[in-house]
């Protein structure tokens, strides 16, 4: 309920941060299923984000088929899943650092295609993104909408769209982890030999995890495209894949809540440092000629240091740290006696008084 009420009180800047954080959380949950639960290293998450973003922009825009935006959104997610399915035979046979290098090639290949396929991607300058419309309701600024005296623009409308997609994906991921697929992926991560002995089809589950993760990334990319309103190829580079790895490591591998927390931290930090750069030491505002570190670079240094701290002192991330703190507070909380029990025991006579006296003959 609190998340639903925030657009009535926050301005566009904070809503934009929340929207980007929710989009990043969707992609981070997918990567956590792949790397944290299934144990497959992937450095190509930015490629599938680009497939979802550009897939929606091309399918719903001009030049392009000009499909209904909702249909274009669904097809963009499926297109990302198809891209993951085409790569899944590699994911089913390669593991560890070799899979990471193979997925890294996807990022460079995808960036080259984005720069050269001008008719689809717009080339270096990118392309604009058509607003999403559902049943005549537009998530853009083309129509006036006032709710309880608050003007609802693009940020307010996209906030609820992002909140809905975020809730659905998180619930789906939780259900998957608690069901048979999640147990199979955990067994696969711990030991492929033991998993195959228990009847787990190793290649099938590894491929399926890659496809599901790609679809999550495609949905996140489409939501990011709607938030940016214009997308460019340089955004979907290697740095974006590293950012998503940082999200799941800081939040906690294999945890949905941890992926969400890591996504919020990594996404919000550079935006906040950009806004308050003038008040931060050693940080210069964008576009200034003064010496110092830009807010984006400073944010990368900070969450790089956070990764080191997490790996050294909290290998299970923010989620595991929060769980341990809660358990320690619960153990240290003094127990209050039950008043019903206290009153009952206080009225009982002592054992010596209740025992009858023995008479000696």
Automatic annotation (TrEMBL):
InterPro entries: ABC_transp_permease, LivM-like. It holds the Pfam family BPD_transp_2. It comes from the Bacteria. This is Branched-chain amino acid ABC transporter permease. The keyword Cell membrane applies. The keyword Transmembrane applies. The chain crosses the membrane at residues 12-34, 41-59, 71-90, 97-115, 158-177, 208-232, 244-272. Keywords: Cell membrane, Membrane, Transmembrane, Transmembrane helix. It is found in: Cell membrane.
